[in-house]
Description:
mainly beta; Ubiquitin-like (UB roll); five-stranded mixed sheet; about 30% strand
Amino acid sequence: xxxxxxxxxxxxxxxxxxxxxxxxxxxxxxxxxxxxxxxxxxxxxxxxxxxxxxxxxxxxxxxxxxxxxxxxxx
Length: 74
C-alpha cells in the first residue's frame, strides 16, 4: 500500500516535507515513525486523513499521515 506522509516544523529537518511510503497492508503509524527515525515522544499531533490518529492506528492504502511536533510560542 502507498501512503503520503507530511512532516511539519522541526520534523522536516534532514527529511522531506512530503513523502510517499510503500508499506505492508495494516502497518501502523508507529511503524512509519520508526522508519523515519522519529521517536513517539517527538510527536504532539498525529492526523490520519485530517482526523486525530493514534500511534497504533493501522493505515490503509492512500491514507495521508500528518505528523506535528510539540510547538511553543508566546
